[in-house]
Amino acid sequence: MKDPITIKITILQPVHKVWDYFYNPKHIVKWNFPTTNWHCPKATSQFYEGGRFDYRLEYKDKSFGYHFAGIIDEIKVLEYVKSHLDDGRKVEVYFNKIDDNTTEIIEIFEPEIQNGREMQRVGWYAILDRFHKYVENN
């Protein structure tokens, strides 16, 4: 990975629930956006090695949107998923079981070149924090 950014968060839920909510499209559309001005109207995932995922993120007013899409390279169930995005950047997500009701997620991703590192770190963390709140409240 080239000059990766790492973010992490601790979630007070069991690893099997955190895993399911993170990769199940019916949940992804409810949390995968950085602020309330955004939404994720569609998420698809072929959740196996070599499978494709495609999450549509867009402003609610439809003035801007993009696809967060790529291929799943490696899965170790309840432990990690490694993938690469359509632009070639790599993403790794680790699920560390702290105890029966606590899970730490660590995301490591290669930044893109259009936006600054701190902006990307803040944006990815905002989505991860929204995920954290969604999982703990559902």
TrEMBL record:
Residue stretches making up the Activator of Hsp90 ATPase homologue 1/2-like C-terminal domain: 14-136
Family annotation (Gene3D superfamilies): 3.30.530.20
InterPro entries: ASHA1/2-like_C, START-like_dom_sf
Family: Belongs to the AHA1 family.
Name of the featured protein: Activator of HSP90 ATPase
Organism: Chryseobacterium koreense CCUG 49689
Record lineage: Bacteria, Pseudomonadati, Bacteroidota, Flavobacteriia, Flavobacteriales
